[in-house]
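Justification of resources, computational component.

The compute hours requested in this renewal are based largely on the per-chain cost of generating structure records like the one below. Each record pairs the submitted sequence with a full C-alpha cell output. That output is archived, and it is also reused by downstream analysis tasks.
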Amino acid sequence: MRRFESSTPDEPRRRRGRAWATGLAFLAVAGAVAALALTLPEPAPVPIHGRLRCASTAPVVGIWVESSAGGNGWAQWRVREGDPSQVSFDYELRRRGAYTLHVGCGGTRTDWAATTRSPVVSRARVDMVCHDEHPDRRCVPAG
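The structure output for this chain reads:
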C-alpha cells in the first residue's frame, strides 16, 4: 500500500522556481541600491576655521584635525599679529560631523614639544587656548 505523500510531483520544480524568483528579486534590489549610490552627489565639504593660541607662548607648529566622519588631515594656519603662539587656521571636513583638534606647541613641525587636544567640537568656528604646560594638555574655549 502506498502512503499518502504531501507533495505533488511538481513540488520540487515549484520550490526551485520560488528560489530563483527570490534570488532575482534580491539581485534587482541590490542593483537598484548600487545605481542609486553611484548617482547621489557627494556631500559638500564643510569648512571649519578659528583661532588657536599656545598658553606658554610657544609657537604653534602643527594642527591635526581628527574627524568622526573621516577625512583626517593637517589644517592650514597662519601666524596672527606677528606672534607665532597665536594662529588662525582653516580646514575642510569631508562631511558634517564632530572633530577634535590636536595642536602642536613648540618644537618643530615633525617633532612637537607638547601635543594639546581640544574637546570634541561640532561648530564651524573654534577659538581656543591650548594649555601646553598643564598636565592635561587640553585646549579650552578662549574668552
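Residues 11-39 form the longest helix (29 residues). The mean pLDDT is 86.
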